[in-house]
Amino acid sequence: xxxxxxxxxxxxxxxxxxxxxxxxxxxxxxxxxxxxxxxxxxxxxxxxxxxxxxxxxxxxxxxxxxxxxxxxxxxxxxxxxxxxxxxxxxxxxxxxxxxxxxxxxxxxxxxxxxxxxxxxxxxxxxxxxxxxxxxxxxxxxxxxxxxxxxxxxxxxxxxxxxxxxxxxxxxxxxxxxxxxxxxxxxxxxxxxxxxxxxxxxxxxxxxxxxxxxxxxxxxxxxxxxxxxxxxx
Length: 232
Hints:
The chain is of the alpha+beta class. The chain has helices at 17-36, 50-59, 70-77, 89-93, 109-117, 150-155, 184-192; strands at 39-46, 64-67, 100-105, 120-123, 134-137, 140-141, 160-163, 166-169, 173-176, 198-209, 214-216, 228-231. The chain contains seven helices and twelve strands. Strand 10 and strand 11 (214-216) form a beta hairpin.
């Protein structure tokens, strides 16, 4: 009788004792979870936000997420055919690179893709983000801002002045160009003008079912983002 893959022991001898114990517990938990659910989906997270991820976890409380610690997840499920916990799981673990995670669920492919394909949460861009579009500020008065903010706007590089106690943008100003890496000042300007350039979203990459079948998903839909916008 062939030896079960579930009997495999994992060596983590290069890890300190406490770290080893913690990682071993995670490995055991992942394997226990794999036994409880029919499907495992791999996913990538874009513009990571802890608040949104927490909300998704709550909404999908019937399922289980593992995010981060890619190497530990790979070891738990198997990096090669010889190591894999169940058939074809080594194909799944190859996708665990960067901001990726695992969704263990009894929900089917159709329901999972429908939910996550429509999940785009606008948020303010952070420093270091690549600008998704060119943003221009239109010339004119800015009555929505208190006059006391005018020095701050000038420090951010905006061509402003006070006109009868109201801030005026003296000429059109390009905050950023598409493809440019945003700096803190640009992000601050975008936030002051209420322009949410980033989208938090999760892309489903692949699906493993407890029948041993592995499937990848390519060309997932993305939101339409105009190349250039003007903000008043």
